[in-house]
Amino acid sequence: MAPVEQDALAVREQLFHERVRECIICALLFAGLYILCHFIITHFKKHTDFTAVHDDEDAAVNRIALGLCTFTLAVALGAVLLLPFSIISNEVLLSFPQNYYIQWLNGSLIHGLWNLVFLFSNMSLVFLMPFAYFFTESEGFAGSKKGIMARVYETSVVLLLLTLLVLGMVWVASAIVGNDAASRQSLYDLWEYYLPYLYSCISLFGVLLLLLCTPFGLSTMFTVTGKLLVKPRLLEDLDEQLSCTRFEEAAVSHRI
Questions:
Q1: Is the dihedral of CA 236, 239, 241, 242 positive or negative?
Q2: Is 143 left (phi over 0), alpha (psi -120 to 50) or beta?
Q3: Which sequence spans correspond to the domains of the chain?
Q4: Percentage with pLDDT > 70 across the chain
Q5: Does the entry feature the keyword Mitochondrion, yes or no (predicted)?
Q6: 110-75-219 Cα angle (round to 5)
Q7: What is the pTM of this model?
């Protein structure tokens, strides 16, 4: 074998080992987030009526919906923590450039994590969460055998019809607003144009909702904190306390 072919083979093997290592690291990180989100959801999940029924089918549906919701929450938590993780990993690499044990925090791993979060975010938003909702509400088509697969078929059909309805409404709205042939053909570029911007639009609505709810949450937090905390004696008005004491003494003397 020629030296050039040996070098190329060595480079391919090195790239393969790096890809395998990145896949293992991503799987471990997601597994940790999934376990954490599972404990969070099971802690705050309400015990509804259908979970109390001793039915294997309802219990299986509940477990599947719980798994989908846990997966979505893990993806959302990963999206929130990805930017701090990228900044911290960059600072660690700049502080210890020669350390062998932290070289796995490289740019390729961060880029792969960003791609996976973007892919799973769109998949959770478009498919997993609507599927989990319709799956818990489904009962199977009339005349079909009862079971998990009957509910899966009904959920898939309902989700497909909902997708077609939403796309048709968007297509009609785009054609009415644009009123030209280019706007009518715009939805053919769904994968290249609309789907990548869907995540940004949902993120924008989430930020607006956060800005709307944050002031009320802060005011409630300060109100609860003010009720729980004891006012320090250094800030008390002694003259006011003396006046109150004199009024109480006068009231007691008047009653006597």
A1: positive
A2: left
A3: 2-137
A4: 74
A5: no
A6: 110
A7: 0.66
